[in-house]
Amino acid sequence: MKTTQWELLQKIGFVRVSGTQQEKQAAELLREAVEACGEKARLEMFEVADQSIEKVSCATEKTSYTVTAYGGCGETEDSGITAPFYYMEYPGAVSQQQASGKIVLVNGYLNYKLYKALVESGAVGFITYNGEARDSAETTDIAHRELRDKLAELGRLPGVNMTIQDAMRLVQENPKMITLVVQQKPLKAVSQNVIAEIQGLTRPEEVIVLTAHYDSVEYSTGVYDNGAGSVILMELLQHFHDHQPNRTLRFIWCGSEERGLLGSHAYVDTHEDDLKAIRFNVNVDVAGAVLGHDSAWCLGPIELEAMVKTYAAQAGIQLEVKSEVYSSDEVPFSDQGIPSVSFMRFGERGANYIHNRHDVLDYLSADSLAKTTQIVLNFLKQLDQSVVFPIERKIPEDQKKKIDEYLNKTEKK
Q1: Which biological process annotations from GO are given for this protein (predicted)?
Q2: What is the DSSP string of 294-339?
Q3: SS3 72
Q4: Beta carbons of 84 and 98 less than 8 angstroms apart
């Protein structure tokens, strides 16, 4: 008996971090689901960086804080590095000057701009935090973060992550000196993309690629992000198995998206010759929220946004449509000049959770999942049934700049 969309989401709803056996298990489950639909799938392996954290600590004269090390960050001697503590509230000229020679606590996500400010300031180490102040100790997990390649190119500072509660305690303690110890061993792991293809009936040489990542972050069952997108892709595959498309549809369930779109980058890097035939990318990332709204973010000529808006209006769908970079697997394709639309159903604040232990089925529903599935399916049918492909294969210059900024090829002004 065919597994329903909701049943498949339940089946893959376990923690499946990049490069782990659990991610491989999820990939195999998706391959089995493809075969149950009557199609064939293959796994394409690619290598990802990994680390074995040998030693990590963060301590002041009064307090020892529980922390995790940034994977791939700089290392310290066995005894650690001791330096003055500084809380950088905002990365401006004054705070950069004051951060010199210090171990610095920063606010927010450690993006390229913030890390560059730390390196240029002469900081000797950094501390970040995650969570919400209202979290209880029992429901707080300290995320294991990594210093991604583009940041590491600026220089590898030793860094750790702590809970937001400990960050508040550290600021209130305001110690003169603080000691970080970070020691790790670099390793390699294997991730994989799951790939299936349905040949087009009348225009097989024109390819539409459909993507959704299936990995999760640690501690998270990742049903909203992005088990939901993965099972939507499976539903689309079943439909087009039953109703052969005019154009070739290539389905890619991407691994290791949560670590910087590694699966879609790996596909693009290893299929350079195949990219010429790809006319469009449809990406699905987050769906199923009971309370939320559906969105479509476009990368491509101005006509694309107008086309999606017209589609929604004609279908009577309230759809938020904009031309913008979405942090997901469409980016590597559009970076190669391939137009894309990312569909998502954003959960409302307080009614849905992402990248933590609260991303669970309780806040999703089969009806909401089916609603987004239908939106994506009908748009895809419209593309596929067009006599002439309706969207020119190009990315405007202003969007190219945004993609370059997102990929840290250039700095955001």
Answers
A1: proteolysis
A2: EEEEEES-HHHHHHHHHHHHHHT---EEEE---SSTHHHHHTTT--
A3: coil
A4: no
Q: For 320-349, what is the mean pLDDT?
A: 98
Question: Is the residue at 54 inside a domain?
Answer: no
Q: What angle do CA 219, 223, 227 make, to 5 degrees?
A: 115
Whether residue 40 is found in the same domain as residue 76: no
Question: For 226, which DSSP code?
Answer: I
- The percent of residues in the chain predicted with pLDDT above 70, rounded, is 99
The DSSP 8-state label assigned to residue 349 in this structure reads: B
**What is the distance of C-alpha 285 from the center of its chain?**
8
Residue 261 DSSP symbol: S
> Can you tell me the distance from the alpha carbon of 413 to that of 409, in angstroms, rounded to the nearest whole number?
13
- In sequence order, the 6+-apart residues with CB closer than 8 A to the CB of 253 are 27, 30, 193, 194, 195, 211, 212, 213, 214, 230, 233
Residue 166 dihedral angles phi and psi, to the nearest 5°: -70, -35
Here the CATH number for the domain that contains residue 333 is: 3.40.630.10
**Domain containing 364: what range?**
5-49+189-406
On the CB side of 409, how many CA atoms lie within 13 Å of its CA?
A: 10
- Two tokens, residue 15: 């923690």
How far from the centroid of its chain's Cα atoms is residue 25's Cα?
Answer: 19
Are residue 207 and residue 257 in the same domain, yes or no? yes
**Could you tell me the pLDDT band of residue 410, with boundaries at 50, 70 and 90?**
confident
Overall number of domains in the chain:
2
Contact (CB, 8 A) for 23 and 15: no
Q: What is the mean pLDDT of residues 201-225?
A: 98
Range scoring the smallest mean pLDDT among 139-143, 154-158, 193-197? 139-143
- Cα dihedral angle (134, 131, 108, 401), rounded to 10 degrees? -120
DSSP run (H or E) holding 1:
none
C-alpha–C-alpha distance, residues 308 and 324, integer Å: 13
**End-of-domain residue from the set 124, 150, 174:** 174
The one-letter amino acid code at 234 reads M
- 123 vs 143: CA distance, rounded Å: 22
CA separation for the pair 377, 282 (Å, rounded): 10
Residues paired with 190 in a beta bridge: 47
The DSSP bridge pattern shows strands 340-347 and 292-299 to be antiparallel
The whole-angstrom separation of Cα 49 and Cα 413 is: 30
**Are 326 and 303 within 8 A, CB to CB?**
no
